[in-house]
Amino acid sequence: MNKKMIVGVDLGGTTIKLALLTVDGQFIEKWEVVTDTSNSGEKIPLCIAYAITEKINSMNGSKENIVGIGIGAPGPVRLEDGLIFEAVNLGWKNYPLKEILEKEAGIPVVVDNDANVAALGEMWKGAGNGAKDLVMITLGTGVGGGVIVNGLVAHGKGGAGGEIGHITVKPEEGSPCNCGKEGCLETIASATGIARIARDKVKNSKLETKLKYYYENNNLTAKEVFECYSNGDQVALEVIEEVTKYLALGISAVANTLNPEKIVIGGGVSKSGSVLLNPLREKFNQYAFTPVRNSTDISIATLGNDAGVLGAAYLVKKFVLKDVN
Ligand SMILES: [Zn+2]
């Protein structure tokens, strides 16, 4: 076993996903470890280094075969030196992840924000299909965003470039967002936002709706909304109309600014597929500038949970191996 390999790491608040890949992005091994966030996350770099060493040893391999470790981390990142400005759910503030992990592992490390990394993964191996101008929006518990222009991630001055989830789409009477503002896209198009809108509508609607049953059983999530929508439920339709309206508003603003080749929608909510995509595209066509509407494609992400580790591996390919343009 002497071929060159890359380690891709998707660092989350509850689990760390790891993968060993060939330099072409073929999976060799995929595994997970629990994230130890005790003592302000001080054990995390050691856990990552240990997980990699253990895996290499179990394969009778050598660390010499690993050309680099790419990591997607939650929070704004400074690409040059792999500093995490802040990762609230890991307990990190101004944390020099690259420096610490390179010391622990003895392998070059490249770090970027997790949403940016997912965008790179989809660009390289997923729905992006190699498009160098791509915007990815991840609709999960929150709303993440990654903007790639001509193959490069837009980080901006403070590492917060591409934070599409915090575009204010509802300037009046918006719900409070985790970021401290009100009316952010995240408060509407995240799984949490969709469930909240559904609860509000159920409370105020006189229409017959199955959502009421889920609500009364404390079981009303985004999933039930999409399910009821597919079955023609009128209140679920109202919820999806509202969600896709604001999502299209945010996306079209980004698209009118960048005219990307692809907009890729990922995250748990995107599993609803065409149920989300069709009304979204209809409203996008209404809000987007005509040349943008005619040239920007919207599609659902294809990599699922693998986008993070693949994008992280791409960081190594680009910045350590320098074999992408
Ligand atoms: Zn916000």
From TrEMBL:
Any one Gene Ontology cellular component term annotated for this protein: cytoplasm
Entry keywords, A to Z: ATP-binding, Kinase, Nucleotide-binding, Transferase
InterPro entries: ATPase_NBD (IPR043129), ROK (IPR000600), ROK_cs (IPR049874), ROK_glcA (IPR004654)
EC number: 2.7.1.2
GO terms under biological process: glycolytic process
Keyword Zinc-finger carried by entry: no
Gene Ontology MF terms in the entry: ATP binding; glucokinase activity
Keyword Kinase: yes
Superkingdom: Bacteria
Pfam families cross-referenced by the UniProt entry: ROK
PANTHER family documented for this protein: BIFUNCTIONAL UDP-N-ACETYLGLUCOSAMINE 2-EPIMERASE_N-ACETYLMANNOSAMINE KINASE (PTHR18964:SF149), ROK (REPRESSOR, ORF, KINASE) FAMILY (PTHR18964)
The family this protein is said to belong to: Belongs to the ROK (NagC/XylR) family.
Stated name of the protein: Glucokinase
Organism this protein belongs to: Gottfriedia endophytica
